[in-house]
Amino acid sequence: MKPMRIALLGAGTVASGVVRVLRRNQDELCRRAGRGIEVVAVAARNAQKARRSIGDDLALTDDFRGLATRDDVDIVAELMGGIEPARELVLAAIQAGKHVVTANKALLALHGNEIFAAAQASGVMVAFEAAVAGGIPIIKALREGLAANRIEWVAGIINGTTNFILSSMRDRGVDFATALAEAQRLGYAEADPGFDIDGVDAAHKITLLCAIAFGVPVQFARAHVQGIRDLDTADIRYAEQLGYRIKLLAMTRRSEQGIELRVHPTLIPATRLVANVEGAMNAVVVQGDAVGPALFYGKGAGSEPTASSVIADLVDITRLHTADPGHRVPHLAFQPGALADTPILDMPLVRTSYYLRIRVRDEVGVLAEITRILADCGMSIDALLQRPSADHDEHTDVILLTHETLEQRMDEALARIQGLDTVLAPVVRLRKEELR
Q1: Is 98 in the active site?
Q2: Which residue among 98, 105, 140, 205 is the active-site one?
Q3: Top-level CATH class of 140-299?
Q4: Residue 5 forms beta bridges with which residues?
Q5: Rounded to two decimals, what is the model's pTM?
Q6: What percentage of residues in the chain have a pLDDT greater than 70?
Q7: ∠222-226-229 over CA atoms, to 5°?
């Protein structure tokens, strides 16, 4: 049987990994897929750089659209990143009847609905395992392995850059700027790290997991996104004293009112496995009604870990290439006509618990006044610390953990607390998740 013919759009880190792994494991892949998988050509802007990346024996072109629509190509692997021209090229490939594999989470988070609809109309597949958590097969697990379950929530540490920074801040006691500089020196963070440290990358990924877990359209614009740029080492230290670790958590959860979709720094109990994911590693926890909690852990980035997921998609498409389109696994796990219109909740309607750090004058009655405001707003306290300020003898830090409440109630309480003349600095508010 003739091999499946692959066009690579892009010749960077992931593409070079795909070429290496395909060459190294070709016999094994052929046994798994039932036929060979071979790259027929690579599109690259810089031929000299591409040669260093992928070798001298593959055909190179700078005509991306021409390669994406070529008659002798079965699958187009879009590995170039960015929104345009990636979106245009993917849609052109689909219109030309090509299956598509992509690692581009930003593209799918923003334009996935359009791309999946075009693929459905053309009877082709779009596979994107590598778009979330690198080498961890979380897309396939949610879409197929956990298909028997009603998914209750998905929570993940799915950005290695921020996890490396937070691990450094906790282990070495350094501030954010120092940890970021180290991450950049070691290659974990880009020269412009905003996409990672501001939570956007994690939000793209959890948006896709949300759609697959709950059978809703992709809705990145509805996600609440908060990064770690303003996180203080004092809060990491206080969280540790209370038995928690702070992680940039991507969370999506089903409730009676709708679906939560959010990314923010979060206190997680140190006894949870996911709280002990360190360095640049990723982990995703899925809570299903039948299976209970399932943890997926591994490398979230890198040439060959990401290539592992890309090639797994190539194998899946090769196996299903001749299948009737109506009998293939749907792109978002649920049949296209059965996607729900369940709303994504605004943050004021989200229920969670909180960590508060309040810098106050060290006077009698201050704590009583704060707890009275919380009680008036329908909140109760789970734990409390009081620590002298490091830079002033007459100031103290009051650290509170609350029980679960609506975010809008916390907003009201914080507005009142911030207005007290005994409160000397902006109140630090972090969310807390027990992940039971």
Answers
A1: no
A2: 205
A3: alpha beta
A4: 38
A5: 0.96
A6: 99
A7: 155
